[in-house]
Amino acid sequence: MTDPVLDLDDLGFETGAHLLVQRALGDLAPGARLGVRGRDPLLDPHLRAWCRPRGHTIVPAGGPVLAWIVPGGADRWSRAERAGDPGGVAAKAPAHWGLAARGALVEPGGPEPAFDLADRDLVWAEIAPALYAHAASAQWDPATAIPWDAEFALPPDIERAVVQIMTYLVENEQAALVVPARLLARVHPHFREVAQLLAVQAADEARHVEVFARRAALTGGPLGTSAAGGRESLTTLLTEPDFSLASFLLSVLGEGTFLNLLAFLDRHAPDPVTRRAVRLARQDEARHVAFGVAHLRHRSETDPHLRSRLRAAVERRHDALAASAGLNQDVFDALILLAAGEWSPQAIRRGHAAVLDLRREMDEGRRRRLVHLGFPDDEAAALSALHTRNFM
Amino acid sequence: MTLVMGAVAYDPKVVTIWAGFRAWFARQGFDFDFVLYSNYERQVDDLAAGRIDAAWNSPLAWIRARRLAGGRLEPLVMRDTDQDLTSVIVVREDSPYKDVADLKGETVGTGAVDSPQATLIPSALLRERGLRPGEEVAVRRFDVGVGLHGDHIGGERDAARAMMSGDVAAACMIDADHLLFVREGTLPPGGTRVIGRTRPYDHCTMTAARATPETDRFRDLLLSMDAADPDVRTLFDLEGLTAWRPARTSGYALLERAVDDEGFYDPAGAVTAPGYRP
Q1: Strand bridging mode B107-110 / A81-82
Q2: What domains appear along chain A, each with residue ranges and CATH number?
Q3: Is the pLDDT of residue A78 over 90?
Q4: Could you report the per-residue pLDDT of B129-169, keeping only the tens digit for each?
Q5: What are the chain A neighbours of B178 within 8 Å (beta carbons)?
Q6: For position A1, what pLDDT does the model report?
Q7: What's the average model confidence in pLDDT over A222-242?
Q8: Residues 6+ positions from A100 with CB-CB distance below 8 Å
Q9: A373-389 confidence digits (pLDDT tens)
Q10: Which of A119, A167, A318, B140 is deepest in the core (most CB within 10 A)?
């Protein structure tokens, strides 16, 4: 067998010769050496300087061949492993896969970042990749998707009611932004569709915060009130460390309940800006609910104790909030006024009935989702009744 | 008994490297620790006096230690990358210099006063070609990290910059740093020429104050380190080697000669270099 000779022509190591040498070394048969020839005046010192830290030995040659490279050095990839299969997710993602792409060849000896949500069943749902794709395609631009310039003039009381509801929505959406953002930072990157979905979910909430805050400030009046009980209810969401329980409390129960609220606001919105904002937000929230439900379905298939833990989480939160006021009275009243549309006793009665209908719809929605997760009807009804009066 | 090795803290990574090696030795059941020095002269003093069992020596430190301690010293290992290095004298592509001799009457930029690769060995090449530093050719030293024996390459880089800006006619550096300076953008690709190159020489070496069963074990363990082991490889990457090799002392003749010509150390190992304050 003749050892191959690489002719670099006038290409030097200052302008990329290492690529050709590396490629030729990669193609070398075991036991063979590589001859190098070329016309770059700096070829010899640079070839030596390049080979030295790689463990290759240089043997001087004669004739047109400048030198022979005898490949050496440890193969740093000899103990490398694939970070799973690009087409599917592993049951457990080891810490040393770290930030590597799924399916990448991972050099050992790297850092082991502490992503504690590294077990597929703790975070996964089969629908996650499809939901992410949908979420990415359904992004809307707050600047153009909402008719901010539409002309309308509301009676001052109705405008104040809208502003009060927007003030309430902003604080709820801020909680809904923080929860997925916190979970996202803990999900092992191997489960990237879940991380992507949570990232878009947080971005959705960021837009909701923006449009609701902008609608609240649109007519220049002061913002509404923020009740201690409402914020207390939201704060309990932030402290739930378990991915599935947090997803259950926020997405299935909280955002699920919000679907009804946003539909109600769409129905009774007194102006095109409010109507469009709540309608767009509702589309996003429906996706968040769908992931929460799908994840919990996936988890319940592998964890027979999940339902009892979900129940305990609802009960724990209810107990924690037992002494708080729940929904801000100003919000409740604003919802009635919005549905009434004016101050006549008949209209107020109609508005009050509409808000009671809303609560019934919310309860039915929660019960339906709980039954979907495998709870018997009576237990679903009992748990729905324990849900926070703050809606979220 | 603990084997205590000295190393010079030329860069913060030295702590990472030797703390990592210490942990690796502990896993092999070998009791090893290290002390850090701010300069090589202090380390060599302690090695020669037997206050430390071994020292990770620069080539210049090896020469002085040998002069101070004579045959008591035991060379142990060196990195594979310490063998057969060359230094180059580099000029701008558009300059008129074709050969080292053309630098007569010009100014040459070197590294720090105590850099074997960027000052002492290239100066010997100049002398060999009839250009005595300070006589036929002026030398402008870039004294960065004095006392670190050239481990800090800042001086070499400053000399390269001065050559590109025209402050000096030529710059001296180790072959690998010429490539590095092109890659990092200090020198433009194709913008320089090499007009002189030294013969090959060796660089750092691990030296024991005297051979003992512990230093034998230390040497054998170092030689057994395998870069395929991820724990070892990350440390090797930082220290710049792919394998430890048995130490050889045949690669220091050029530097010995340069040290004598410059009067850097006297034959007994005293520091005699004018203006050298590590």
Answers
A1: unpaired
A2: 5-70 (3.30.110.40), 76-114 (no CATH), 120-386 (1.10.620.20)
A3: no
A4: 999 999 999 999 999 999 999 998 999 999 999 999 999 99
A5: 42, 45-46, 49
A6: 66
A7: 93
A8: A83, A106, A189
A9: 999 999 999 999 999 88
A10: A167
Rg (CA), chain A: 31
Domain B3-82+203-262, CATH number (from 3.90.870.10, 3.20.20.70, 3.30.70.360, 3.40.190.10): 3.40.190.10
Q: pLDDT tens digits for A296-325? A: 999 998 899 999 999 999 999 999 888 887
Q: Which residue has the tokens 């992410």?
A: A132
What is the length of chain B? 278
Size of interface A-B (CB pairs under 8 A): 70
A149 Cβ partners below 8 Å, 6+ apart? none
How far, in Å, CA of B163 to CA of B167, rounded?
6
Q: How many CB atoms lie within 10 A of CB B54?
A: 27
Residue of B179, B190, B231 lying closest to A46 (CB–CB): B179
CA distance to A385, B120, B164, B273, per residue, from B126 (Å): 92, 10, 20, 18
pTM of the full structure: 0.80
Residues of chain B neighbouring A49 (CB-CB closer than 8 A): 175-176, 178-179
Do the chains contact at A78 and B193, CB–CB below 8 Å? no
Which amino acid is located at A44 in the chain? D
